[in-house]
Write a structure and sequence with these properties.
Residues 128-250 form the Pyrrolo-quinoline quinone repeat domain. This is Pyrrolo-quinoline quinone repeat domain-containing protein. It comes from marine metagenome. The chain is mainly β. The chain has a domain at 1-152: Lipocalin. Helices cover 0% and strands 43% of the residues. The protein contains no helices and 25 strands. The chain has strands spanning 14-15, 21-25, 28-32, 39-43, 54-55, 61-63, 65-69, 73-77, 84-89, 99-101, 105-106, 112-119, 125-130, 137-143, 153-154, 160-163, 167-171, 178-183, 190-191, 196-200, 205-210, 216-221, 231-232, 238-241, 247-250. The strands form 7 sheets. A 4-stranded antiparallel beta sheet has the order 1-2-3-4, with no helix packed on it. It has a 4-stranded antiparallel beta sheet with strand order 5-6-8-9, with no helix packed on it. β15 (153-154) and β16 form a beta hairpin. The radius of gyration is 18 Å and the shape is globular. 36% of the residues are buried.
């Protein structure tokens, strides 16, 4: 139907309720008419905007920053007009060092969750919960490794699941208190309706974990890393790809 040309790589689009297509490419975020591809607006956040966007129930577009830079900020933009609503600046102790922000996830109460390369006085990296209306920080969670590479996942009870290079965490969505942690290098998770959370990993396995307790249910091994987020079918089947070149479908009760 149409093609939007760009000299930069384009990331996964987000689609609004009126079929507006939002995409970050290079240093610009575009809002495109879904039918014609024509520009509705452009927003330039002042940094690279290549990470996947998120859209709130009120149409607000949330923009992270995928490439580390000392100028990076996290932005909220009016989805209809492209006007900035608020920005969340880096809170790291050394503003001359680069930071980055993950693609966000939005809670049922509108709280915006995202990881960062910001760090505190103890040298730990910060994961944030931010009020969607004001852009004010609700809480932060500190860990030894940054959580800026993958968006968090949110359970039906509001639990926030975060992955870093060395751990997966389950956090209380209202307080940021840690519920459990699981050692290992995991990638973007997916949550099933039976309270199972699935992680790919660099140990070549898909891990099925009890979302409430953090205990492992089972593992499925492939021949190489599993870095993509799994998809879960209506019947509970888990679909995922591996660096071994295979695409797998596994029973969720395996």
């Amino acid at each position: 139907k149409w093609n939007k040309g760009s000299r930069n790589r384009s990331m996964t689009p987000a689609i609004g309720g009126d079929d507006t297509v939002y995409i970050g490419t290079g240093f610009t975020v575009y809002a495109l008419d879904g039918e014609s591809g024509s520009n509705k607006w452009e927003f330039t956040p002042g940094h690279h905007a290549g990470c996947t966007l998120a859209i709130g129930v009120d149409g607000t577009v949330y923009i992270g920053a995928d490439k580390p830079d000392q100028k990076n900020k996290f932005h909220a933009v009016n989805g209809l007009t492209g006007k900035k609503k608020w920005e969340f600046p880096s809170t790291t102790l050394n503003p001359t060092l680069p930071t980055a922000y993950s693609s966000p996830a939005i809670g049922y109460d509108g709280t915006v969750y995202f990881g960062s390369m910001d760090y505190n006085k103890d040298g730990n990296y910060l994961f944030y919960a931010v009020d969607s209306k004001s852009g004010k920080k609700k809480w932060e969670f500190a860990s030894q490794h940054a959580a800026n590479s993958f968006p968090p996942a949110i359970g039906t009870d509001g639990t926030v699941y975060v992955v870093t290079n060395n751990f997966a965490y389950a956090l209380n969505g209202k307080t940021g208190r840690k519920k459990w942690q699981l050692k290992g290098t995991y990638f973007s998770p997916a949550i099933a309706s039976n309270e199972t959370i699935y992680f790919g990993s660099n140990d070549n396995k898909l891990h099925a974990v009890n979302a409430r307790t953090g205990t492992r249910k089972w593992e499925f091994e492939t021949e190489d890393w599993l870095t993509s987020s799994p998809a879960i079918g209506a019947n509970g089947t888990v679909y995922f790809g591996s660096w071994d070149g295979g695409f797998y479908a596994v029973h969720g009760s395996a």
